[in-house]
Design goal:
The chain is mainly beta and about 150 residues long. The protein has one domain: Jelly Rolls. It has helices at about 15, 145-154, and strands at about 35, 40-45, 60-65, 70, 75, 80-90, 95, 100-105, 115-125, 135. The strands form two sheets. Strands 1, 2, 3, 4, 6, 7, 8 and 9 form an eight-stranded antiparallel sheet that branches. A hairpin with a 2-residue loop joins strand 6 (about 80-90) and strand 7. The N and C termini lie far apart (about 45 Å).
C-alpha cells in the first residue's frame, strides 16, 4: 500500500525518509524539576515542544501554593489560562475553586492572588515562553520569585 493510504512504505523509501522526525515524551510531575519558592510555593513546568527552549512553545506550570500564600499584583507578556485543581484562590477580591478556569489576555493586570486556608494547586498554561510575571509599575514583587523560577526551571 502507498503512504497516502496511511501505511508505511519500504525502508529507504524517499517519501518516508522525507517525513519530519517525530517526538513524544512520557513523564510525570514527580519526574520534572520542581522549584521550591521562598514563600513556600512549589512550581513545576514543561514546554509543549520537542525543544524545551523554543520561545514560541506553550509552557505549562503546576503550582502548589501553601495556605494563605500571597502573590503581588502583576501582568504577563503573553496570554494564559489558569485552572484551579485543588483548594481555593482569591484573585483581585474574587474567589475561585476547583474546576474554575481564568483566561487572561497578555498585559492584563490582576492580583493580588491569595491561596485559601487549605492552600491551592493550579495549572497555568501560557501561550508561549513569555510567561515570567511582570510586577506592576512601582509595585511590590512579593511572591513572584521570577528569579528563582528562571534559575531553577530553565
Amino acid at each position: 500500500m502507498d503512504d497516502q493510504a496511511g501505511t508505511v512504505g519500504a525502508a529507504g523509501d524517499t517519501a518516508r525518509d522525507a517525513r519530519p522526525a517525530k517526538f513524544q515524551r512520557d513523564t510525570s510531575w514527580e519526574d520534572l524539576t520542581t522549584a521550591e519558592l521562598p514563600n513556600g510555593a512549589r512550581a513545576t513546568k514543561f514546554a509543549i515542544s520537542a525543544d524545551p527552549d523554543d520561545p514560541d512553545a506553550p509552557v505549562v506550570f503546576r503550582v502548589e501554593f501553601p495556605p494563605n500564600c500571597e502573590v503581588a499584583p502583576h501582568t504577563h507578556d503573553t496570554d494564559y489560562c489558569e485552572i484551579i485543581l485543588e483548594g481555593r484562590q482569591q484573585v483581585t477580591r474574587r474567589w475561585h475553586g476547583p474546576g474554575d478556569i481564568r483566561i487572561v489576555q497578555a498585559h492584563t493586570a490582576y492580583g493580588p492572588l491569595v491561596a485559601g486556608e487549605e492552600g491551592c494547586t493550579v495549572l497555568a498554561i501560557f501561550r508561549n515562553g513569555s510567561w515570567p510575571a511582570v510586577p506592576l509599575a512601582g509595585g511590590k514583587d512579593e511572591g513572584l520569585h521570577v528569579d528563582v523560577l528562571l534559575k531553577d526551571l530553565s
